[in-house]
Amino acid sequence: MTIAIFHDLAEAQRTVLRRKRFDEMSVAPALQASLDQQWGTGTTPQAAVDRIIATVREGGDAALHELSRSIEGVDLAELEVSPADIAAAYVELAPELVVALRSAATEIERFHRKQTRQSWIDWTDEGALGQIVMPLERVGVYAPGGTAPLPSSLLMAAIPARVAGVREIVVCSPPQRATGQVSPLVLVAADITGVQSVYKLGGAQAIAALAYGTESVRAVDKIVGPGNLFVVLAKRAVYGIVDIEALPGPTETLVIADAHANPRYAAADLLAQAEHDTLASAIMLTTSAAVAQAVQAEVGRQLEELARAEVAAQALERQGGIVVVPSVEDAIRLANDYAPEHLCLLVDNPWQYVGAIRHAGGIFLGERSFEVLGDYIAGPSHIMPTGGTARYASPVNVDDFRKIISLISVNDRALRRIGPAAARLATAEGLTGHAQAVQLRLDDLA
């Protein structure tokens, strides 16, 4: 298997560059069979999530234990990870891996410490206006931990929250079926970031517990972190009860390569994205037909060396592609329309194009600034907008964990100046009570 090449731009826009809506995602037959067995024939993922949330709201801890048994096949004695379990996790990991996690944490924190925003008050002879910048009090981080634990995602969410000043950060991560414990990678990452609690909870039931609370899990103000389809649907269902950072969909990368791009690097970057998930998107736009062919050949060769070759092959076949375009400027235009999570510029002098880019979660400039560094250790959070939401959304950052409280202090001088306009606007809207509240004060001043 290799990756398709498109020479017809219109065809590429109808196929590989066409965005699918969130609700257009099809359910794999194996997943539907599991839903039918667990919840009844014809149950949709959303219906299953709704039932899980209702069950947790009504049953609390008992429901979480039962769902862990029935869905994850794990019988939990306790929901919260103990300090002894965390200490044991350090023993299980190679020392150099612990060092790598700490190094990543240092770089992530260094980056986010640059993002400063302070409260401010502007005093004038008419009073004062201002903003109080306030951290959220309690945040829940979801850390995937099934077949591919993602401690890096925990670091990328919890560290900006800690930098923002969040008082309490808790983590939910699914227990491994073989051990009944959260992945040691996730536990060590949680300890390094200084979170207060880790719970052995995964899937929609974890999101429900964080949103509504149970006897053991206190409700949070915001939930962040990627997850599978059920996690995403559950986050959408509880939004409004709590805040969420986004509805992260399958991960994606868009590589722009010119005639000087190294085909080996380009192929490696596409495969690094494709191995995440069978739903991942790995697309390249190139100005060179020769580079397209060379990358296609490299993908086929390098694919054979991957441990997750089957996953990557399915992703490339379903969502991957190489599109030959007339110019780098045309590629930038297509990239802005696509609004990718990751935009990689494997071109000469990539900085000259930065000003033309309007929509991307992250821009990776040049062959040494490849996406994998951003995934783990460069500094910015790798939890980035997917599915075209980079048109309006941002990567997870410190401001995700802060809120603004407005300050308004108006004296008599200001009231005389702005009060009449407020009364007129209120009257125009038919809100005479509003207008009267202004006029009473204006009359007293007179």
What does the model show?
This protein is α/β, with parallel strands linked by helices. It folds into three domains: 28-117 and 135-246, Rossmann fold; 249-392, Nitrogenase molybdenum iron protein domain (Rossmann fold, 3-Layer(aba) Sandwich), CATH 3.40.50; 411-445, no CATH class. Strands 1-11-10-9-12-13 form a six-stranded parallel sheet, sandwiched between helices. The chain has a five-stranded parallel sheet with strand order 6-5-4-7-8, with helices on both faces. It has helices spanning 9-14, 29-39, 45-72, 83-92, 95-113, 151-164, 184-193, 203-212, 229-238, 263-274, 289-303, 309-319, 328-338, 371-376, 412-428, 432-445, and strands at residues 5-6, 120-124, 127-135, 138-142, 168-172, 197-199, 222-224, 243-244, 252-257, 281-286, 321-324, 342-346, 362-365, 402-410.
